[in-house]
Amino acid sequence: MSIWLDQTSKVIVQGMTGSEGGKHTRRMIASGTRIVGGVTPGKGGQAVTFEERPVPVFDTVAQAKEATGANVSVIFVPAPRARAAVIEAVDAELDLAVVITEGVPVADTVDFVAYAQGRGSTRLIGPNCPGLISPGKSNVGIIPATIAGRGRIGLVSKSGTLTYQMMFELRDIGFSTAVGIGGDPVVGTTHIDALAAFEADPETDCVVLIGEIGGDAEERAAEFVASHMTKPVVGYVAGFTAPEGRTMGHAGAIVTGSAGTALAKKRALEAAGVRVGRTPSETAALMRQIVAAL
């Protein structure tokens, strides 16, 4: 199995008729993802052809689910429309909704994350994330499908580009699933959620955790590792050279005093038994040592 996404997943694309949605739909289909429909209000009844394959477009997520049996949505809509798109996916009781959109107002994210948690039927990943991939099975989002093959490493990361780099560094070993959770201050799925899923997954032997400066997500993940993880975890925290008091990249990467610094996160993770690299390549080398010893 894989966590949350496999070859049986039936995926719809909210915003498929837009430029970004269309471009990445083509990529997802090429990597073997079962794209069964798109959703664009007002364009229901149309179809978009990808590699000589017509994909139907529906006005609503509920219509798409009824017609196709879809259980996953990937959302490529403009930020002002993201809240409505997520709520529509949750109301349709899809198993998974992956919000690629960046620039979503934090108030909107707080609202739709709370709404999804209250309904209890849909896992949200994102916003402002690259999505997730179970190599050789399914790819939902913008992660390149060619940078790594199937294997037994799980990966959870705040950073999209570091997700890609770590997958490439360990491409010969391969991954069960790689999840980009997004770096905004509020996200639908946390490091802890992914760690728990990897711990329960019989096809995952070890996990790479990638964090970054700001907030306390990594410290909380360290507590979870110490009390719940039996599988080895390797970590990397982006931002060792970042000046204190600066906002670096993601909106969540804000450092105040000693809280949220890369060093503080590294110490918390190491105290929980996580081996932490100071660079992505060093982190990959640590994972190679663990895999060799399994």
Features:
single chain; 294 residues; alpha/beta; Rossmann fold; 7-stranded mixed β-sheet; 9 helices
In short:
The chain is of the alpha/beta class and 294 residues long. The chain has helices spanning 19-30, 61-68, 79-91, 106-119, 160-169, 191-200, 217-228, 262-271, 280-293; strands spanning 11-14, 35-39, 47-50, 53-58, 72-75, 96-99, 123-125, 131-134, 138-141, 150-157, 175-180, 206-212, 233-238, 275-277.
Classify the fold: give the CATH topology of the largest domain. Rossmann fold
**What is the number of E strands?**
14
- Report the portion of residues in β strands: 15-25%
Q: What strand line-up does the widest sheet have?
A: 3-4-2-1-5-6-7
* Average of pLDDT: 93
CATH architecture of the largest domain: 3-Layer(aba) Sandwich
What best-fitting shape do the alpha-carbon axes yield? globular
Q: What is the string of SSEs from the N terminus onward?
A: EHEEEHEHEHEEEEHEHEHEHEH
Which class do the helix and strand fractions yield? alpha/beta
Structural domain count: 2
Biggest sheet: strands, sense, closure? Answer: 7 strands, mixed
What radius of gyration results from the CA coordinates?
19 Å
Ends distance: 20 Å
Can you count the helices? 9
Low-pLDDT segments, ≥5 res: none
Helical fraction: 25-40%
